[in-house]
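Extended Data, panel c. Modelled sequence:
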Amino acid sequence: MVPAMAILDAADAADATMQDASTGRSEKQLRHLCTLPLEIITTILECLLPQKPDLGETRPVSYEKLDEGELWYDHTRSRRGLWSMCRVSRQLSAIAQPLLYRVVALLSEESMFLFFRTLTDRPQCGPWTRYLSVHLTLTRESVIRETRRVVGRLLRTFHPASTPPILMDPIRVALEIMEVSLPALSTYDGDFDDVPQVVVSFILMFLTRLDTLLLQVPVCDDNPEYDALFVKLGAARDHFRQFGNTPEHAALTPFQRIHTLLLQGDPELLARFDTDDCDCEVPELFGAQPRRYHAMFAALPALRTLEVSSDDGAWNNILEEEHAFLSGGTIEPYLGGFREIYLHDSVTCPIHLHQILRNAPHLQTLYMTPRIDPRFEQRNHHHHHPPTEPDPMAFDVALTHHAHNLRELDVAWYDCYGCYNLIGPEGRLASLASNTTLEKLCVQLAVLFGVSSMTSGGGGPALIDLLPPNLVELTLEDWWWSSLNVYDAMRDWRHSEKLAYYRENSEYRQRAIAMMAHFAARFRARMGRLRKVLLLCKIPWTWEMAGSNGEVDAEFHFREVKEVFKEQGVEFSVEAA
């Protein structure tokens, strides 16, 4: 494979030769390039496809300050390389131009409106886009003001195409309305707050082959949710439905291929909340609110995967609550179309995972990485004797009644002390042992053993009796609620403190090694499909030591356990986070 950086350098050279018409070298190079098979040229140029932004990625503050290797540095240079190839020849342009629009990241109000103008002028470019990310919170006041300025400056540069009429007619009408309203489009007027949402909804109408959409969304009530965007998506869906299901109209119908929705909690505002000198009032509960996006879920019929960064932890079905209050009726689960849900940096508590499973009956994958939730700390002050009887809405109850299609489960919490009953009996996921659908599981030891944990010195049940029988891959996370007391502090530990912690946990290591040895020797009788086991140690200094007598890593303690697993065809490894 040709290195992408080499292709970028070649693209820069091609761009330079295009500007220097006095030499015949560029024509010679072009003749040689055109003799290559089309498939090879395409494969080479595909190396220039920009990297897709990850969830939580903030837009660049200044392009001049970007360093080589950063996402946006590589992203912009890749696009520049494709743009240079578009200018070399018609043949290369026909290949490079669709790739130029394959991955689109809207990083400013101007880029958003210019992309809208491109699609309006040349609708044939729309089907080239597969991935779109919008790194603007559309209801933030600063975004609304800047969008108004951009509209006032660029609207008159639009030259909309006339075809296809089913798509262009409503957009031409909208542009005319914008132009008529332009004199009243004050940058501080509140009558046009939905302009950014309208622009994004029109962009989505052009992208008929889009499969992945990333939206940056509000994380507090100061920025309203995207109600105008939802209304526009619903109106567009209804507009195309009235023309029937002819092949011609089916090819132009938007939103039919979007299978993955990424909701990115506004990372800029979240970063401000995390600073000690934040000049704004930090709400007690903040984060993205996916429960309010049910209208968008309904408008995108092919949705199968939902990823959310920094949600606020609440997943109740607000439509169901409204209907129950007004008419006492029932309503369909608002997450009914999803097969995979991934929550990153989440404060979703166990009873709200119950809500997810209840509202996503076809769910096959549930993943959650936690962030520390201050609400647990508040509960701890009020629960000197925490209840251990499971709550009716406990997560374990949901696994029993609403997880019939679940194949992969990976959830964790930093702290559930004082709230064991929200997980299950005595803080355990007791139903895991009888779950026959799970094939991949990542689970904390604290959730497996609950209140009767190994850290108390008690015997407790055997690990093999706590796990699903049909697992193929198992990850055990070495984490207990009491670990939170040292988790933040350990980053500043001196060597002596790490060594002291290692020595203090000698008895714990012995019990943990014995537990894994017992499991390795007996798992096959109950878990015939198991092929991979990982022990993930969240506090490295429980298992690692460096001293004058040499170093000890986590793998050292499990050498014999690893051999026993290997003899039975199971890959076993230990990782220290």
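Residues 1-100 form one domain. This feature is highlighted in the accompanying rendering.
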